[in-house]
Specification:
The structure is a single chain. With 118 residues, the protein is of the alpha+beta class. The chain has 2 domains: 74 residues, no CATH class; 43 residues, no CATH class. 30% of the residues lie in helices and 12% in strands. It contains 4 helices and 2 strands; from the N terminus they run H-E-H-H-E-H. Strands 1-2 form a two-stranded antiparallel ribbon. The relative contact order is 0.23. The N terminus is likely disordered.
């Protein structure tokens, strides 16, 4: 779909992207990552310091078998919520890629119900 297409002005691609840390945020292994954070993203790690991973362990980013990224179409101006992102990611994990939640490898065009037909 060309960027000048009317649909591109009315729709946006939403994304949730999770990672599990296995190292302290102020560790040498994550220094470059933390230094690259900007704005509100930089404030988040400072508030979360001292919180272990669900397994109670610290370490570097760990590999996971389940989907950690999900994408979906939303109307321009839509304010995403954590609950919405969680719902989309869980749907992807349970049902696989679909128009409701998909990946970069298996994407879907914008649904007509959001004001676009391609």
């Amino acid at each position: 779909m060309p960027l000048g297409h009317d649909c591109c002005r009315r729709l946006r691609l939403a994304q949730v992207n999770l990672a599990r840390l296995k190292a302290l945020l102020d560790s040498p292994q994550l220094k470059d990552f933390v230094d690259a954070l900007k704005g509100r993203h930089r404030e988040m790690p400072a508030r979360r310091r001292g919180a272990p991973t669900p397994s109670g362990q610290w370490g570097r980013f760990e590999r996971v078998q389940e989907a950690m990224v999900a994408m979906w179409w939303v109307p321009a101006g839509h304010r995403l919520t954590v609950a919405e992102a969680e719902s989309r990611l869980l749907h992807l994990r349970t049902h696989g890629p679909a128009p409701y939640a998909f990946t970069l490898r298996t994407s879907y065009p914008p649904p007509e119900g959001l004001g676009c037909s391609v």
